[in-house]
Amino acid sequence: MATPTYAPSDTPLAVAELVDTLSDGTKVMIRLPRMRACGEKDAKGKLCAGHLKRWFFFGREVKEKFGDDAEIYRCEHCRTLYLPNPEEQPRTGTLSY
Ligand SMILES: [Zn+2]
């Protein structure tokens, strides 16, 4: 089996990186490559696993931080926001899911 080129050599368990927290407490993460489900855990440590959907209705705070037409995904379950993974873009361009 081929080793994925994006993986650092010895990351034990990949976790999405927290990049920002909005003033209302919404967390903003960077998606892992090909990540399609939310990796947040609730207070009991249960994985959220909500679907990440492209989201266009972000407010001014998000626009100021990430641009007017930023590519934002939102977990439909816990509302955590996700930015696309920068390593993923050169290969795939616009994500189709
Ligand atoms: Zn979630």
Q: Give me the strand/helix succession.
A: EEEHEEH
Whole-number average pLDDT? 84
Structural class: alpha+beta
Bound molecules: zinc ion
Low-confidence stretches: none
How many structural domains in the coordinates? 1
Q: How is this structure best summarized?
A:
Helices cover 11% and strands 21% of the residues. The chain contains two helices and five strands; from the N terminus they run βββαββα.
Structural write-up:
This protein is of the alpha+beta class and 97 residues long. It has one domain. Helix content is 11%, strand content 21%. It has helices spanning 60-66, 89-92, and strands at 17-21, 27-30, 52-55, 72-75, 81-83. The protein has a 5-stranded mixed beta sheet with strand order 1-2-5-4-3, with no helix packed on it. Strand 1 (17-21) and strand 2 form a beta hairpin. The radius of gyration is 14 Å and the shape is globular. It starts with 16 loop residues before the first strand and ends in a 5-residue tail after the last helix. The mean pLDDT is 84. Bound molecules: zinc ion.
